[in-house]
Specification:
Chain A is mainly beta. Chain A contains no helices and eleven strands. In chain A, strands 2, 4, 5, 9, 10 and 11 form a six-stranded mixed sheet that branches. In chain A, strands 1-3-8-7-6 form a five-stranded antiparallel sheet, with no helix packed on it. Chain B is mainly beta. Chain B is built from no helices and eleven strands. Chain B is globular and about 35 Å long. Classes of the chains: A mainly beta, B mainly beta. Chains A and B meet through strand 4, strand 5, strand 9 and strand 10 of A and strand 5 and strand 10 of B.
Chain lengths: 110, 111
């Protein structure tokens, strides 16, 4: 069955606001990754956080990982219209394959 | 330069036909993948190859057959296409088990 569940399924905000997406997973992991998918395009890797890390930053992105709760969050600060996309978390478990979450569709209005 | 490329981008075909999708990566990665993304955007791995060897083979009908002539190419051949095969198929590659680089996708429509 699917590993990751994301919340919310859809999020609409104004430019300049922050966007927070959450991901929950079921089994132990080595690392967790976040990807972005623009409409009609392939996925683009955003950030990878290892199981022994709690927080990671990359530009306007901040990712947290709580392995005790089996959850992660992606925060996009000062959002822009260009951030409009679907965002997926992906985890690797014992099976050496990435399991993708259901995705959050983010709409940023100018 | 395109890192991971797929052809064709769109594929419209009749039920029962056989079709192939090609994938090439110029990143020098050892591992390549095929994913299927359904209409609800759910992305699921189908196959993974490492240095031309099959290492992941999910529960996929045997009408789907991947072929890796060399580590830069992973093609997907589909026999006897069915309506339920309609989806977007993504190729990806990675070095070891790290971030994956995705191709632009092939939208397959079976009529």
């Amino acid at each position: 069955s699917q590993q990751g569940e994301e919340d919310p399924q859809a999020l609409s905000i104004q430019e300049g606001e922050n966007a927070t997406m959450n991901c929950s997973y079921k089994t132990s992991i080595n690392n967790l990754q976040w990807y972005r998918q623009n409409s009609g395009r392939g996925l683009v890797h955003l950030i990878l956080i290892r199981s022994n890390e709690r927080e990671k930053h990359s530009g306007r992105l901040r990712v947290t990982l709580d392995t005790s709760k089996k959850s992660s969050s992606l925060l996009i600060t000062a959002s822009r219209a260009a951030d409009t996309a679907s965002y997926f978390c992906a985890t690797d478990g014992a099976t050496d394959k990435l399991i993708f979450g259901t995705g959050t569709r983010l709409q940023v209005f100018p | 330069d395109t890192a991971v490329s797929q052809t064709p981008k769109y594929l419209v075909t009749q039920m029962g036909n056989d079709k192939s999708i090609k994938c090439e990566q110029n990143l020098g990665h050892d591992t390549m993948y095929w994913y299927k993304q359904d209409s609800k955007k759910f992305l699921k791995i189908m196959f993974s190859y490492n240095n031309k060897e099959l290492i992941i083979n999910e529960t996929v009908p045997n009408r789907f057959s991947p072929k890796s002539p060399d580590k830069a190419h992973l093609n997907l051949h589909i026999n006897s296409l069915e309506l339920g095969d309609s989806a977007v198929y993504f190729c990806a590659s990675s070095q070891e088990w790290s971030e994956q680089f995705f191709g632009p996708g092939t939208r397959l429509t079976v009529l």
